[in-house]
Specification:
It comes from Lentilactobacillus buchneri subsp. silagei CD034. This is Putative surface layer protein SlpB. Keywords: Signal. By secondary structure, the chain is α+β, with helices and mostly antiparallel strands. It has 6 domains: 99 residues, SH3 type barrels, CATH 2.30.30; 96 residues, SH3 type barrels; 88 residues, no CATH class; 91 residues, no CATH class; 96 residues, no CATH class; 185 residues, no CATH class. The protein has 12 helices and 44 strands. Strands 1, 2, 3, 4, 5, 6, 7 and 8 form an 8-stranded antiparallel β-sheet that branches. Strands 33, 38, 39, 40, 41, 43 and 44 form a 7-stranded mixed β-sheet that branches. The chain has a 4-stranded antiparallel β-sheet with strand order 9-11-12-13. Helix 7 packs across helix 8. The longest helix has 15 residues. The radius of gyration is 32 Å and the shape is globular. The relative contact order is 0.08.
């Protein structure tokens, strides 16, 4: 370790006086007449729920009681007001310590449930109730069970390991109690277990519905816990015999292809094998009464599964109309998005889904119409019209369709949206921008959620007899092949023709593959063929990172193994490396280009643009030597350093990093002397199939600072504070 020493490194006790008030814990050396001091600092008692609070915006958040000397503001009142309005339960707040000053003021130490915001806040003049900058907050509100909940039995809709609130169960509804997590991390062993719902309620911030489930057989109770209601499905037997006068409509999720539920539509006076609808001038249609009844049955079945306000599209009506009594038909349904929003589904003139957008407003409430009724006419506010139209136009880019001839919302379309209530969805028909010619076939690619990815129009070749021949000419490999590798190769060629990157056939469900096969085989000139593709998993530019002090040339292999980032978080280099490698700024697909600016954004997002570390006074010449490890921190009395460090002298360093083009300070390798720059002269680097191990070489802001860990310095909460930041 090399220390840059200018002048004497001895610091007088008088100079060290600036650290006298770094802690929030009790002070015993300063007179109450001359300085505010803390007279008590204790852990809050009571249940976790009784200590859940929210910010009022009347006081800021500080590193310690704001009245104490040296207190630094962590968050302004404006920031705290925004946190109080958050629609994410991860921003719920827990109070866990309380301090009182000699002036009779109370301060609470609080932390958001995600741990990203922590500090002390003024809480009034009494410890009997929260006041000042915080107030009590109910993170979850219990409700009464509906008849469907009380009388039904349920299973996991999508058993798996995803931590998404609707795949596994939780000990409490997610983020409603501090550091209370999952009941199980894998629900697949419980896929066939039947459950009853015995409690329900709503998270205050999201407004989403949670239920507590208990296995009907006590021997399967391992997964009993809380889950989003939408994560369950009723235990219907979709493989039971179908009556001769019934058609079974199987409902699957458009995004995952997973089975949701089914409904049996029955009709008297029909014969087995007869179609339910009729072909009128080339279009399959349902009788209006049948359509209305089926619509009602499906909507009722889907609503408790988290698909409210379902409306049949023309494409779905056509699919059902071709079904025959005594058999089944499968349709995909799109799940409405977040709470307090309206989903606007865009369809082609035939009713096939092209894309969708979600629209919400600051004052949106479930069940409230988007617009207002003026006499017999529904209207949108001018601001809503402009905002919605902009979103829809953007969603239609590259699809070959527009809202209307001039790509603006028509009066009828505005009326449709205006009368739709938040929490539901509405379908809007579009028009073709450039109608497909009789010698052309258009391929429109959508992702597994139904959103348009892009399209390409293929022209009939001289020797092509069918539209499939034209498609095969471009795909080279057979796009109807049952072989996965052949199919993947064929789609890769078609996607390349459309200029689409990052998608493949890997990961498509059996239903989606079957739908694609049917669509390609039925392809005809003058028509559009919709094909579902799956998004490729993202790849990282950086697989791992090592962090070096560029001035430390004594041992070029000694990276910083434990340090503190700009956000006051102390952790191992392995954990900081993992966070950096996973940052979205430097992730993409093989062949994507990442810039220097992207890496700097990722470094800043992870708080790694400025870091602090410390070393012991065991060096041979200059005093500094072995880097402090995790075991040297976190004393039993709440101090920054372990108890055994008291009285010792350390050296602390503040470092900064900024990536530059063609610069070995950001290099590929694992040593300080690695000199192969990650970025080229233009500041670009290309993502490959495997990430790069990189070295980040930091600059010292100024010479290392010698610090004696006396009683005052031991009280520092962070290395940044100890450094005098």
């Amino acid at each position: 370790m090399k220390i840059h020493i200018k002048g004497s490194i001895l610091v007088s006790m008088a100079a060290l006086g600036v650290f006298a008030a770094v802690g929030i814990s009790q002070s015993s050396t300063v007179s109450a007449k001359s300085r505010v001091r803390v007279t008590s600092n204790v852990k809050l008692k009571g249940t976790g729920a009784s200590r859940n609070v929210t910010f009022t915006g009347k006081a800021a958040l500080w590193t310690k009681a704001s009245a104490l000397k040296g207190a630094k503001r962590v968050a302004t009142t404006i920031t705290l007001r925004d946190l109080a309005k958050s629609t994410r339960s991860s921003k719920n707040v827990r109070a866990y310590r309380v301090a009182r000053t000699n002036r009779g003021k109370v301060y609470y130490k609080v932390v958001t449930f995600d741990g990203k915001d922590r500090g002390w806040i003024y809480g009034g003049k009494s410890r009997s109730s929260f006041a000042g900058g915080v107030k009590s907050y109910l993170t979850f509100q219990q409700n009464s069970l509906t008849d469907d909940m009380s009388n039904g039995t349920f299973q996991f809709a999508n058993p798996g390991t995803a931590n998404n609130n609707q795949t596994v169960t939780y000990k409490q509804p997610a983020w409603t109690q501090y550091k209370v997590g999952r009941q199980v991390t894998d629900s697949r062993p419980y896929a066939n277990v039947s459950y009853q719902i015995d409690q329900t309620g709503m998270r205050t911030r999201e407004g989403d519905q949670w239920v507590h489930i208990s296995a009907t057989n006590n021997g399967n109770s391992g997964a009993d816990g809380w889950i989003l209601y939408s994560g369950l499905k009723k235990t219907t037997n979709i493989n039971s015999p179908i009556a001769d006068n019934a058609i079974r409509i199987k409902l699957v999720d458009s995004a995952t292809g997973s089975s949701l539920t089914s409904v049996d539509f029955t009709k008297t006076g029909v014969t087995k094998g007869a179609t339910i609808g009729a072909n009128v001038n080339g279009t399959w249609k349902l009788d209006s009464n049948d359509s209305s009844s089926i619509q009602s049955q499906i909507a009722s079945a889907l609503s408790p599964l988290g698909y409210p306000g379902f409306t049949l599209t023309q494409g779905q009506i056509a699919a059902i109309a071709q079904g025959t009594f005594g058999s089944s038909v499968t349709i995909s349904v799109v799940k409405p998005t977040i709470n307090k929003a309206v989903r606007i589904v865009l369809t082609d003139p035939s009713g096939n889904v092209i894309n969708y957008v979600d629209y919400t407003t600051a004052n949106a409430a479930n069940g409230q119409p988007v617009g207002v009724q003026d006499g017999s006419t529904w209207k949108l506010a001018a601001t809503d019209t402009a905002a919605i139209q902009a979103k829809l136009v953007d969603a239609l880019k590259g699809t070959g369709f527009a809202l209307s001839a001039n790509n603006t919302l028509t009066t009828d379309q505005q009326a449709q949206i205006a009368q739709t209530t938040f929490g539901n969805q509405v379908s809007i028909k579009t028009v073709a921008v450039n109608p497909i010619k009789d010698n052309e076939v258009q391929l429109s690619f959508v992702d597994q959620a139904g959103k348009a990815v892009g399209s390409t129009t293929l022209t009939k070749g001289t020797n092509d007899k069918t539209a499939l021949d034209t498609i095969k000419t471009v795909s080279v490999a057979d796009p109807t092949s049952p072989d996965a590798a052949t199919l993947k190769k064929a789609y890769a060629a078609l996607l390349a023709k459309a200029g689409i990157k990052g998608y493949t056939t890997d990961g498509l469900s059996k239903d989606q593959l079957a739908a694609n096969l049917a669509a390609i085989k039925a392809a005809a000139y003058g028509q559009d063929v919709k094909l579902v593709v799956a998004k490729l998993p993202a790849k990282a530019l950086v697989s791992s990172a090592l962090f070096f002090d560029k001035s430390d040339t004594k041992d070029v292999t000694q990276d910083l193994a434990y340090f503190e980032n700009a956000n006051g978080k102390r952790d191992s280099d392995a954990n900081f490396s993992k966070a950096l490698a996973g940052d979205a700024n430097i992730n993409g697909y093989a062949g994507d280009v990442v810039t220097v600016a992207n890496l700097n954004a990722a470094v800043k997002d992870q708080g790694l643009n400025t870091i602090y570390y410390a070393a012991k006074n065991d060096g041979f010449l200059w005093g500094a030597g072995t880097h402090l490890a995790a075991s040297d921190y976190s004393g039993t009395n709440g101090t920054l350093f372990a108890d055994g460090m008291s009285g010792k002298t350390i050296y602390e360093f503040k470092l900064t990093f900024t990536a530059k083009p063609d610069n070995p300070d950001t290099s590929i390798g694992n040593r300080l002397d690695s000199n192969k720059p990650l970025f080229d002269k233009q500041g670009n680097a290309t993502i490959g199939d495997t990430g790069n191990q990189v070295v980040l070489k930091y600059d010292e802001v100024k010479a290392g600072k010698q610090i004696t860990l006396d009683s005052n310095n031991m009280k520092a909460k962070t290395l940044a504070e100890l450094f005098g930041e």
